[in-house]
Amino acid sequence: MASSNPMGQQAAVCDLCKHKEVKLLCISCQYKLCKECVGNHTTEELPKVHKVVKYEDRHTHFSHQFCMTHSDRQCDTLCTDCDIPICPDCLTGHHKDHSNEKLPKEFLTKRKEILEDNEAMEESLIPKYTQEDVVTRSKIANLSFSYKSMEKEMATYKRKWEEEVKKIFARFASELHALQGDDLTPFKCHEDKIKTGIKEMHQTLGKNRKLLKAARVSEILSYTSERDQFQSLPILELEPNPPALILNSEKGKPSRFQLEDLISLLLPPTRLPFTSLLPNVQKQLLDKVAVLATVQTPFHAIRDLACAGMNKVWVNAIGDYEDTALSCFDICGDKLDSVTVGSFCNGLTMDSDGNLLYSEFNNVMTYKNGETNEKIEIPDGWEAMGISCSRSGNVLICLMNVKNEHKVHQYKDKACIKEFKCDENGEKLYKNGEYMLYPQENVNGDVCVVNHNSNSIVTVCSEGKLRFRYDGKDANLTKDLNPNAFVTDSMGRVIVADEANDCLHVIDQDGKFLRCLEIPGLTKPTGISLDSRGRLWVGSKDNGAIKVVQYAKYAE
What we know:
Distance between the termini: 56 Å
Helix content: 10-25%
Number of strands: 33
Shape: elongated
Number of helices: 6
């Protein structure tokens, strides 16, 4: 008898009243019945005789087909005129003038398979899906509760400020709701998948019951099981991670209200200058990186990443087909969009307007909402390599010629406004070599470039003077630095993916080594990008997986 158990299985209920526990099974109709409903069921006209057995004995009858007319007799003959199985009494009775043949053994095998499929879905798979749905709804409720709690805190704090402050809180409310929408989206998508699976299994159960009740031999012989598509229960490898809401108010000091990187200060009455009163807002490195999600792409290896907002990322990768397409995935691993490039893509980035920018050999292209346009034409004799958008809206492009010489151009719209090639002493900034370079602009205006040809990070100020070179030796690792990608964060830190040592180097804006970050389950980090929440998305050159991690938090 089915009963509640720790695996999430539930007691089977009567098919007629829908709420009482099953005690009996009508072999003729495959109806589960409680004691109270068995009388009503056995008075139905079709079949004329119902064979009812104890529910716990049902497995002993899976391999037998009982006659729909003589419920105590097993069928061993096929009436080919009626396409139904019949017993010896039927053969000498109503079907005596019909053509017949021995009932195929495969019929009983297929019939047993249908019964086993139904039982597996009813007693195991559907309860598991239902349990996962409960867990997912619980996560959604908890996450929603976190946002509701923060809304109440905001409302309480808001009453302490004057009328002009209402505009500030309106901005915070808008930001919070936008974050909430982005945060809940993957969980709601997962909930929809679970519910869809449950609905499809119920539909399959209905079709199978009709198939068994009709007992058409030809239809049962052509039955194809759909159970395999439900065996793998979809699991969302993502934990709720609500944003940090920081409230700080001390007498005589500025009142601070902060949601992620959006901050507002209310200063007390004071005489100028009041710079010393301003809080030193820091986003501190975590002692241990927290993996929030794993995005498994269909590719062999990741080349480059560019986060689009909070829960989406554009991927330049190596796959089973020609590597001329860029793909956009959400944090659940679902593919949202793709764009085919004209030639091999060397680098990609996002601009402040949400456009995807990617570099081909001779051009930099933009893509948004299905439309592709040329943004920048590369000078003759040079090819576009790594690319990034600066915080000012300008575009940094690494260029390489046939002599494997390198330089960096800074563009505003379509015009080159700066070139970085030599330092203040006329020495080359970037070592010649066949490997491409990747640029980033730091918060202080420095231009940082990862040069795989020299296995170093080269940083110059906005005027082109050399500030520092970082070669990884301060990290004291077993292997030399092998940098393929990097980012700069809101604190001016430079985070470098080290493929050789399976870690990330973190240095400050002056080139001082801070620490190495290891990401559990990730080897050979290559592509790396920061989303709008300040989370790191790091790709693997080993298996095409992308880890979404939290590596820092704002200090209280």
